[in-house]
Amino acid sequence: MQSKTFGRMMVVMFLIVMGLLIYQLPSFAQEQAPKAAEEAKPERLITMAVEYPGVEVPFEENVSMNIIFNNKGKADENVDVWIASKPEGWDTKIKTYRFTVMGLYVPSSEKKEISFEATPDKTVKPGKYEFRIESQTRDGQFKMAETIAVTVKAKQEEKKESKGVKLGTTYPVLRGPTDGTYEFSIDVDSQLPDDSIFDLSAQGPEGWDINFKPAYESKYISSLQIKANQNKSVSIEIKPPATAQAGQYPIKMQARAGDAKGEIDLMVVLTGTYKLDAGTTSGLLSLDARQGQPSNISIYLKNSGSAPQNNISFMTFKPENWKVEFKPEKIETLAPGELKQIEALITPYNEALVGDYSVAVDIQGEKASKTLEFRTTVKASASWVWVGIGIIVVAVGGLTALFRSFGRR
Predict the structure, then answer these.
(1) Which fold has domain 165-270?
(2) How far apart are CA 31 and CA 111, in angstroms?
(3) Which of 66, 78, 262, 388 is most buried by a 10 A CB count?
(4) CA angle 379, 381, 384 (to 5 degrees)
(5) Cα 355 from Cα 196, distance rounded (Å)
């Protein structure tokens, strides 16, 4: 009896040990996956880009835009930055909201933005002007440069106001993103000897929403009553369509009462919006794979902004010794609203353990990015299934022999 009891205890212990080993393997693989993704980053990699490499501005208008630093490496970086060259007649500086900037600190995996400003003096004439921005890390390992091309437009002749009414505004040019709302405050000065009702109208780009409101009120109006030789303020609210491209858009406003007519030219400068959307056609961010064998997954990429995205590249954070390939490897340009499909081939390491792994795909556009994280489940190949069956058969045979041996005693 004691020999049979001892044999049963040996069987139970053997099964418990085997179960613990099988249970721990997937969790071990999951713990190692994030570490492998972090280790896949380059030790040092930092880039610099200007927000708008080429702009066109009205005569005597200032230039302002962001300079973007992106640290894609593991190490934090200190970067010196300066204006290497500028045209005569321009006062330039690199600054934050308070300080002039000569250097900045960019932590690992983060972006930092600073502002470039250029102000023309009275000697600057219409034409093209170039500014060169340079930067480098403190040890000189990374040197970067960008050129900003500014085209100054010729000054437009001011139109004479018609007798009887005059329109004026403090800020005739407003700028901002495509999804913004722009509101101009207009002074309507009546020079008529009698009380008059002025009809309000505006001409703008097709598809734009333009409305008039009394000053400090939210209701919309189409006319304005003004007493003799007095003035009133009216607001013109402008909303661009979501599909509007970056650029300059003129709006002409009119106020008319009988033969008296006044006009004013306004301008909305859209900087555009930058947004990338990505995903899979099925909506799933998971796939199955086997050691050493490529698995394919289709990724769609859409430009959801109003400005083109150029030089779109792909980076991956993957477990050690894994391979990830993209077809195509790079997208030269993606127009607003355009959709493209990319094929990703994920090949696990030949000796990868069975379990779940994380493979992150970082899609880097010119001024926008998107990250997808795929849960990749590595399954045992058919050959390993047969090996497992063989091990079980051998184990059962060994236990049977053990029982028989103890039974004879």
Answers:
(1) Immunoglobulin-like (2.60.40)
(2) 28
(3) 262
(4) 110
(5) 81
* CA distance from start to end of the chain: 10
Which pLDDT tens digit goes with each residue over 217-231? 889 999 999 999 899
User: Nearest 5°: CA angle at 183, between 182 and 185?
Assistant: 150
Q: Which of 212, 279, 268 is nearest to 241 (CA)?
A: 268
Q: In what order do the strands lie in the sheet with 46-50?
A: 46-50, 63-71, 111-120, 90-95
- Give rounded-to-5 percent helix, strand, coil for the chain: 15, 50, 35
Residues 6+ apart with CB under 8 A from 29: 352, 353, 354, 355, 356, 357, 378
Q: Is the pLDDT of residue 98 over 50?
A: yes
pLDDT tens per residue, range 373-396 = 999 999 876 555 555 566 776 666
* pLDDT tens profile 159-206: 444 468 999 999 999 998 888 899 999 999 999 999 999 999 999 999
Identify the CATH assignment for 47-152 out of 1.20.1060.10, 2.40.50.100, 3.30.360.10, 2.60.40.10. 2.60.40.10
Q: Specify whether the CB–CB gap between 285 and 262 falls below 8 A.
A: no
Q: Which two tokens stand for residue 15?
A: 């099964």
Which three-class secondary structure state does DSSP give residue 183?
Answer: strand
- CA distance readout (Å), 215 to 147, 220, 224: 43, 11, 11
Considering only CA atoms, which of 40, 44, 35 is closest in space to residue 108? 44
Instruction: Say which DSSP state 305 is in.
Output: S
Q: What is the Cα–Cα distance from 178 to 175, expressed in whole angstroms?
A: 9
Asked if pLDDT for residue 399 goes beyond 90, the answer is: no
Statement: residue 10 has pLDDT above 60:
yes
Reading phi first (left if > 0) and then psi (alpha if -120 to 50, else beta), residue 37 is in: alpha
Q: What is residue 161's predicted lDDT score, i.e. its pLDDT? A: 45
Nearest to 236 by CA among 224, 260, 257, 220: 220
Q: What is the 3-state secondary structure (H, E, C) of 357-368?
A: EEEEEEEECCCC
Q: Which residues pair with 105 in a beta bridge?
A: 78
Does this chain's domain 26-40+274-380 share its CATH topology with 47-152?
yes
Domains of the chain by residue range: 26-40+274-380, 47-152, 165-270
Please state, as a whole number, how many other Cβ atoms lie within 10 Å of the Cβ of residue 176. Answer: 13
